[in-house]
Amino acid sequence: MSSVLTDLFPHPIVQAPMAGGVSVPQLAAAVSDAGGLGFLAAGYKTADGMYQEIKQLRGLTSRPFGVNLFLPQPETADPAAVDVYAHQLAGEASWYETELGDPESGRDDGYDAKLAVLLDNPVPVVSFHFGVPAREVIDSLHRVGTLTFVTATTAEEARAVERAGADVVIAQGVEAGGHQGTHRDVPETDGSGVGLLSLVAQVRESVGIPIVAAGGIMRGGQIAAVLAAGASAAQLGTAFVTAHESGAHALHKQALTNPLFVRTELTRAFTGRPARALVNRFLREHGPYAPAAYPEVHHLTAPLRKAAAKAGDAQGLALWAGQGHRMARELPAGQLVEVLVAELAAARTALSAGGAR
Ligand SMILES: Cc1cc2nc3c(=O)[nH]c(=O)nc-3n(C[C@H](O)[C@H](O)[C@H](O)COP(=O)(O)O)c2cc1C
Question: DSSP letters of 138-186?
Fold first, then answer.
């Protein structure tokens, strides 16, 4: 592992930030205590909500951790498309006996206020999703001793991350659960993304900064593979959704290994930006025509998802999942890190012995 990372956490395992209440302080603390890097997700939090979680996490662990922010997104090109989608979702609202959300309710997610909190109360790592922060932002975080990680989904995006002065690029393969961290929203929702092993190799030949590999990783053997391809560590999301400390809804945890859900797809149905989820009724029915409008669609569908959760209906939830979801294990997070580390060691021994298994 690159020394900038080994100084922070001994095992090459990062617990992905997971917005929507999944990566709670208890989860991040358990991972950091086990020698990985735990993360809080502040993308949907207010600045104060983020600050409170950081305080709580500091009370649970003295180990390093990270906080994740979403880059503000450009204005939606076609507000009329959001109106059309709202019209198409009217039946869902009456089915779940709720109202649709106000699409304009949260265009400003408080990015600047969150940055101000992170400069006043520095944390070891800040990561960014959905774009590259301005160089001054990265420089100001460096001045308070914070390392910066930025997601990239192509070699070109990785070069932009390096040019901006970030310390680490998170190479996110198309297999990944949740939102693709593309720097700009792209027209296609599927079929154009790069698979993780290929992406890591391309990024390795494109930039000099350390790489954290993310997407579909569920076992230590896969971590060995991305390390061999040039990554310094692996970032796992779906594998930690089923951890005991995860704040994911029980329906989400159960769905990952429920044989009823056999496929994942990239969809705009829930938030307006491509994200990988288990294929359920809502995704099947609304995915094909959902508009490119983040965060408007996120706010529009929020009450539907809340009502579906209340009704115990997994068919109406955003069941974020990477392609490896069926291999999810229900373990305490610290134990999951230990198992992954043991599998990684076994895979490395097998590799160096040159033996096929
Ligand atoms: C439930 C869930 C929520 C996620 N939320 C975020 C987030 O808030 N910020 C972020 O940078 N990545 C987020 N991701 C993406 C992860 O950072 C990572 O790229 C992905 O989990 C890796 O693929 P995997 O799920 O197959 O391990 C999320 C992923 C999941 C599964």
Answer: HHHHHHTT-EEEEEESSHHHHHHHHHTT-SEEEEE-TT-SEE---SS--
pLDDT tens, residue by residue, 109-153: 899 999 999 999 999 999 999 999 999 999 999 999 999 999 999
Q: Is the CB of 243 under 6 A from ligand 1?
A: no
Q: Whose Cα sits closest to atom 15 in ligand 1?
A: 178
Identify whether residues 158 and 220 lie together within a single domain. yes
User: Number of structural domains, the chain?
Assistant: 2
Q: 97 is in which domain, residue-wise? A: 76-107+262-318
> Is there a single domain that holds both residue 241 and residue 277?
no
Counting from 1 in the atom list of ligand 1, the atom nearest the Cα of 214 is: 22
Q: Would the CA dihedral through 312, 316, 317, 319 be positive or negative?
A: positive
200 lines ligand 1 (CB under 6 A): no
pLDDT tens string 2-52:
778 988 999 999 999 999 999 999 999 999 999 999 999 999 999 999 999
- Mark whether 65 and 102 lie in a shared domain: no
Strand ordering across the sheet containing 65-70: 13-15, 233-236, 211-214, 168-172, 147-152, 125-129, 65-70, 38-41
Look at the pTM and tell me if it is higher than 0.90.
yes
CATH number for the domain that contains residue 162: 3.20.20.70
Tell whether 62 and 187 lie within a shared domain: yes
| 240 and 296 together in one domain | no
What b/e string do you get for 207-241 counting C-beta neighbours within 10 Å, with b at 16 or more? Answer: bebbbbbbbbbbbbbbbbbbbebbbbbbbbbbbbb
Q: Are 114 and 54 in contact (CB under 8 A)?
A: no
